[in-house]
Amino acid sequence: MTLIPVAGAPAPRPAVALETDFQFTLVGLSQACRIDSTQLQDWVAEGVITPIDRGSLPWRFAGADLQRARTAARLARDLALDAAALALVLDLLDRIAALDARLRRLGAA
Predict the structure, then answer these.
(1) Which residue among 21, 28, 107, 109 is the one 20 to 30 A from 38 at the CA level?
(2) Which domains, from first to last, does the chain contain?
(3) More confident residue, 105 or 54
């Protein structure tokens, strides 16, 4: 794929992977995903995302949770899913990804 620059547009930035030791607070994660922190609390209650130490306040989330929370926010918005339905959909997507990885491993053997 070739990128063609648009006159006057800023140069594309390279993708950056989040380090595993990077953490978000509840407020920071809700801001990064552009959702209300109350909605994020509902997602924690349903198991959509899990704080690093649920028993410790304030909650902290791993950097890897950002992608999951953004996916959840997009699905919730686009498909009008409540927290319970969102948890189910994300679980099914996780299972599909695991099966895809398994098929790739088996195909490589």
Answers:
(1) 21
(2) 23-108 (1.10.1660.10)
(3) 105
